[in-house]
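Incident review: delayed structure delivery

Summary: a single-chain prediction request sat in the queue longer than the usual turnaround. Root cause was a stuck worker, restarted by the on-call engineer. No data loss occurred. The affected request and its eventual output are reproduced below so the record is complete for anyone auditing the incident later.

Affected input:
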Amino acid sequence: MKFYVKQKVFSLGEQFTVKNERGEDCYFVEGEWFSIPKTFHILDKTHRELLTLRQKPFAFTTRFQILREDCVAAEIVREFSFFGKSYRIEGSPFSVDGDFLTHDYTIYRDGRPVAQISKEWFTWGDSYELDNYGGEDEQMLLAILIVIDCVLDRN
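Output delivered after worker restart:
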């Protein structure tokens, strides 16, 4: 199933709307405005919180924890590298690889490709297509997309 992630341009804090292939709202992502540490909330269409993404402050490299019901489900770590960007997902069977500078990358589960993320260029606000062809946990895939977008925008 494909999802389309669109950032709202004129809003306090970072906000995204996630639509399915039929154009229906599925999820909302709300970033806290001027929060330390940086925090995002992934909400369902009734605005019930599903996941919290929270940056770990004072870490050597950028690290975001993905919390589901106040328990750490995974942690995304931007790895230190002189030759491009790479990310590691700890505590999860997922990994990610691709061209992060062009926002075109693949998410793997136990080494098997399960989703493709690509950025749509020349749009008002950031827009992404998330193709979940592996039938995986779409909330976790969305969390990976949001964290990588946030880290790339800040650097």
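Verification: The radius of gyration is 14 Å.
Action items: add queue-age alerting; document worker restart procedure.
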